[in-house]
Amino acid sequence: MDALILLCIIAFWFSILLFLKHYWTFLKEKRKRIEHVAVVTNIDPFEKKEKKKNRRAALFEQMTKYADDFSDLGQRINFFSENHDVEEWLRKSGNPLRLTVKRFQGLKIFLFFIGLFFGILAIVIGLPFSQYFLAFSPILGYFLPIVLIKREAKKRQELIRKELPDFLDTVSTSVQAGVSLDHALREVIRHFEGPIREEFSRFNNEIDLGVPRERAYRELLKRNDNSEFQSLIKSLIQGMNLGVPIATTFRIQADDMRQMREEKVKELAAKASPKVTLVTTFLIAPVSILMIAGLMIMNMLLGENSIFSTF
Questions:
Q1: pLDDT tens column, 224-246
Q2: How far apart are the C-alpha atoms of 116 and 122, rounded to whole Å?
């Protein structure tokens, strides 16, 4: 009977793994078909993602509408979340959920009370470690939005750093072919996704609305603290004021960014070496020594030439 139960459990988990494998294959094939249809029908998949993102933001807005009731309290209780810091985090993260500073400040207080409610509920139900849950769940609810928005901002800046050299090479090639910078940006960003496209699409929209070019560049600087991106935009402002060819600026910036990325990889590799040595010294080496010493002791006590065989 026990063997039958064990066999059923193994079959169940094997079926789950098989289902996950085939479901993953289905998702990959579906993604390929969608991309193929988008290419054939000349539909931009980025627009679909934007619509999906907007629907998600609208849903989140409905779910967190009660957070507005706590916005005044949240702006007074602003530990680790000053209003100017929150505004900067939202700007650098792209604000995918369309949060305002007031709603963000109210959201952390709202989640604080949600965590407090679940902590009290855990004590009433009698769950194990409920007293620790009561102590830490409100703190977790308060700091969760702060951690998530800061992580999203950092992730977005890393994506910009990763895609920027290829973007610059493509724009430089287009400009050298005689295309104007504005037209090159409009055409090139269609082949990119993510924050690079979002930032330069917004830049193009501001130019279309009559915003001065230098002011639009300054807005790009405010929304991104990536050092490579900042260097590029400052070079474009300087080139615009001094009359330096744009293609040359883009090409030099792309080469510099690739060199900086290579140096950063070397730096990370150099930092990893002491960590590997530390792990080897304090974990692997002692365990190996203990295993060898244990085998020697077992051989001395239980082997053919053990110390007990002499008696």
A1: 887 778 888 887 788 777 776 66
A2: 10
